[in-house]
Structure formats: C-alpha cells, structure tokens
Amino acid sequence: MGSTALGGAAPARAGLAPKIVRLLANHPQFRITVMTADRKAGEQFGSVFPHLITQDLPNLVAIKDADFSDVDAVFCCLPHGTTQEIIKGLPQQLKIVDLSADFRLRNINEYAEWYGHAHRAPELQEEAVYGLTEVLRDEIRNARLVANPGCYPTSIQLPLVPLIKAKLIKLSNIIIDAKSGVTGAGRGAKEANLYTEIAEGIHAYGIKGHRHVPEVEQGLSEAAESKVTISFTPNLICMKRGMQSTMFVEMAPGVTVSDLYQHLKSTYEGEEFVKLLNGSNVPHTRHVVGSNYCFMNVFEDRIPGRAIIISVIDNLVKGASGQAVQNLNLMMGLPENMGLQYQPLFP
After folding, report:
1. What's the pLDDT score for residue 231?
2. What does the DSSP 8-state code read for residue 117?
3. d(C-alpha 234, C-alpha 52), whole Å
4. Which residues are CB-contacts of 56 (< 8 A; sequence separation ≥ 6)?
5. Helix (H, G, I), strand (E, B) or coil at 337
6. How far, in Å, CA of 238 to CA of 255, rounded?
7. Would the pTM of this model clear 0.85, i.e. be above it?
8. Active site residue 151
9. Three-state DSSP class for residue 94
10. Where, by residue number, is the active site (predicted)?
11. How many other CB atoms are there within 10 angstroms of residue 272's CB atom?
12. Sheet of 30-37: strands edge to edge?
C-alpha cells in the first residue's frame, strides 16, 4: 500500500533506523524505497548494520540526492535541530513521523530554552501533532506531521495522564525515578557510555533538568488543564535496552489505590499495547524487551495517602520505533497493530 523513506544522519538518532527497518521487514503494507544518511551515504544499509544484511534495501543516499517521487511517508531519525530544516524542504503530500524532539514542545520559546537555539520551523510546529498514540489517537489519525514522543515521557504519561484527567491524584509532589538501558543514549561514541564507565553500576544524570522534563510537564499540564511541575531523575543502568519509571503520587482526598487501579484498568482494557498487570505482580523490563508493550501496575505506599506506580517499556520500541510505526499505521488508515505483534524476547 505505502512506500516509506527512512532518514538518518548522526549516530545518536540513526541508531533508531535499524529498529524501524526490523519492524517494517514483516509489515504487510509498507516497503522501504529511500534511505538517507550523512557520512554513510553511498554504502549499503547491511554493511552499516550487519544484522539486517538479509533485507533487500536501497543503498543509503545523501538527503540532497533523495528522490521522494515514489514515497508516501517518511520516518525522520535525524539529530535534534536538524529535522526542522529537512522537513521544511519535503514535499507537502508526505506523511511524516519525526523521532527527534524538534516538534514535541508546542511552545517554541520553551524549545529554545531547553535546546539552546531558536526553532527554525515555527509554522510546522503549529501543524505537528504529539504522537502519544493511546492518548491522542484521533488527532494522530488526521495528522500530516507527528512528533513521536520520547521514551521517558511515554512510560510516564501513559499511567499518569488518565489519573490526572480523572482528578484521582494531586498535581503537586509528583516524584519520578526513571531508569534506562544504555541504548537510550544513542549509538554515538561517548566516553560516559564505555563499558568500563557503566559496568557494575548505576548513575543518575540530567539531575537539574533533563530535556524530557518539559515534554512530560506539557502532557500532564494539558491533562490537568493547569500547570503541573514534576521532580524527575533519570538513571543509566548497565543493560542494553529497557526502561522503568517509578512514580510516587499523592492521591486526592477519599481516593484509594484500588480506585487508581480500576481507572487504569477501564482506560486501557481494550488497548493492545498497554497492559495493567494483575494483583501484586511487578512489571519488569525483561518482560517487554523487543515488543511494543507497556506494562504497568499500582501499589500502595507505606506513607498514607500515597501510591507508587511502576511502568516499563522497551525504550527502542514503544519508546521510539514501535510507537512510530503505530502512529504511521493510524495516519495511513491501517490497523494500528499492523507489523507490531512481536512478542517480548525472554530470556
């Protein structure tokens, strides 16, 4: 039905490209006709990512040499700040899912504050739809440009947005302790990501202000229809992939943990990719690896009036490429789960 282009340049974002290629390999309706690159232009995709050498893919070309005449949709895996200029130059008829952060923040002044430069395509920002699929499905279905959410914001907003909309939790004192595998930092060579730096340990980063904070606060504030400020600390774990967000919330007067559980259960009962675990079962990252699932559960805190919510995803699938394919399925009028029914890899 549709042909797609896959754009990637710097290693930090290009690491997402092979994940999308893997998902599209078994997609019955999409085929890849154009693949762009920067320093790898002219090479075969399988020589850059040998685990995909069995796929019949076009050679990588520079963006300036790409022919979009036979393309219906584009996945952009470009670095933050680059996507704005590239998308401005793409044909208007293309459906676009952008996996960078360039169109996630609706307020361009807030974008400039967090990303260190002015937004270069404010007119496109007005058009962009935030791609948290289970929350904004109708808007995504009718969109031309979708800003795919970040991994931390996906794992946090899926449980918290419904509870905030239902006024079941207070808007103050929301504390989030989140942990991610090393792939959350991209594929680029960085000293901090060397094996000897991360092995046998865990460390916090972005403590004063991670760039996903305004994205999370934007989504929670829209759900609350008032300003929400969070305490958020991300941590790097010595594992390849996976993400866990542990959220500490204060319940509204008269609300119980059972009320939170039942509301999340009714919210996501018909959803294929968001699952509320039964009873006291604790979500584990190893149970969602390689899949587009988000597992979550709610627990009573030992402090009266507070609850603990745990949410896990594969940061590279539901936190990035899987949600991107899910969104493009919607945009193209296809079943939302098409090409995404991979079961988790365990052990």
Report:
1. 97
2. S
3. 31
4. none
5. coil
6. 37
7. yes
8. yes
9. coil
10. 151
11. 15
12. 60-62, 30-37, 2-8, 73-77, 95-98, 145-147, 129-130
For residue 222, the cross-strand partners are: none
Domain boundaries along the sequence of the chain: 2-127, 152-317
d(CA 243, CA 183): 10
Of the candidates 274, 305, 306, which has an alpha carbon nearest to the alpha carbon of residue 291?
A: 274
Predicted confidence at residue 3, as pLDDT, reads 66
Task: Extract the tokens encoding 299.
Answer: 């627990």
Check pLDDT > 50 for residue 325. yes
- Residues 255-314 pLDDT 10s: 999 999 999 999 999 999 999 999 999 999 999 999 999 999 999 999 999 999 999 999
Instruction: DSSP for 305-327, please give it.
Output: TEEEEEEEE-TTIIIIIHHHHHH
pLDDT in tens, 67-87: 999 999 999 998 888 889 899
CATH of 2-127 given 3.40.720.10, 3.40.50.720, 3.10.20.30, 3.30.365.10: 3.40.50.720
Q: What are phi and psi of 276, to 5 degrees?
A: -95, 120
DSSP 114: H
Which of 76, 77, 151, 294 is catalytic? The answer is: 151
Q: Tell me the pLDDT band of 201, cut-offs 50, 70 and 90.
A: confident
In the block, which residue shows the tokens 């079941």? 168
CATH code reported for the domain at 152-317: 3.30.360.10
Measure the CA dihedral 264/321/94/11, to 10°.
140
Name the E strands within 167-293.
174-180, 202-204, 230-237, 243-250, 274-276
